[in-house]
Amino acid sequence: MAKTLRTSGDYTVKAGAGYNSGSGANTIQLDARYVRIPGDLTVSGTTTTIDSQTLSIEDQFIEVNRNNSTAGTEDSGIFFNQGSSNNQILYYDADQSEFVLGSTTHAATVSAITNITAGNLRVAEPSESDHVATKNYVDVTAGTGFSLKVAGDDSTQITVGTANTLQFTGGSNINTAGSEPDTITISLDNDLTNITSITSDSSNGSLTLVTNGTGDVVINDTLTFSGAASTPAASTVTKLYNKTAGGGGTGLYFINSNISSGTEGELISKKKATALAIALG
Question: Rounded distance, CA 197 to CA 213, Å?
Fold first, then answer.
């Protein structure tokens, strides 16, 4: 038969020394098919364990880390027990101000996450500008209408889409901004065409053309020399330059420190050479 126990004030059921004594070890067990608590339930112990197969919660929101009173200083989230494997976790990293999903060697009793291996998150293809993008969207959809692709050693291609920027930074060579092993090597498989000007960007810098092995630098058209502002300094290599024509009648001069002690000489034209041959007999 049903029975009601009514008191005019608080009512305490204590087993042994009780919890608040710090030494209690006894258990109170309610053995019934259903246990209903019509009022609010406050659990003040250290651990709350629920062994039911299904947990159904009517509340719209669940609050974790309830007693935290300091802004942005404590990690908090949800652990997913994976048995003998590392736990999976979805949590808020307070130090980095970001949410993290991954696996950890920590147990749920930890107060801060210091060991995390980021995991994968599968989402649908984005349809709004504030949706998370999938790899397929970044590789394909975002690059629609743009033909530039970057391929790695494994031939995986990444399309650079409209309004995206592909930037190579560096000093005398083209390098990525990152450190090794993130260096990008750019190779040209074809001849350069439609090049109208090659300029050194260094003040008074030289422009050097170097062939492969014993190959020659070949010029298949007219080579024009602009007038030299002054006679260049002699060195152990031959320098060709143009200035006002002298006795040679060409205006094309050369200078080499190993020839005539570095005194400049002028190439002689055919007409001048013929006249000198006649004059000298």
Answer: 25
Q: What token pair was written down for 163?
A: 């309004």
268 falls within a domain: yes
**Number of structural domains the chain divides into:** 1
Task: Please state, in angstroms and rounded to a whole number, the distance separating the CA atoms of residues 182 and 237.
Answer: 39
Is residue 229 domain-resident? no
**Per-residue pLDDT at 71:** 80
pLDDT below 50 — which residues of the chain? 145-146, 170-182
Identify the domain containing residue 265 by its residue range.
239-280
pTM: 0.50
For CA atoms 108, 111, 114, 116, the dihedral sign is positive
Distances (CA, A) of 257 to 4, 37, 164: 120, 106, 54
Residue 21 falls within a domain, yes or no?
A: no
Rg (C-alpha) for the chain, rounded Å, is: 42
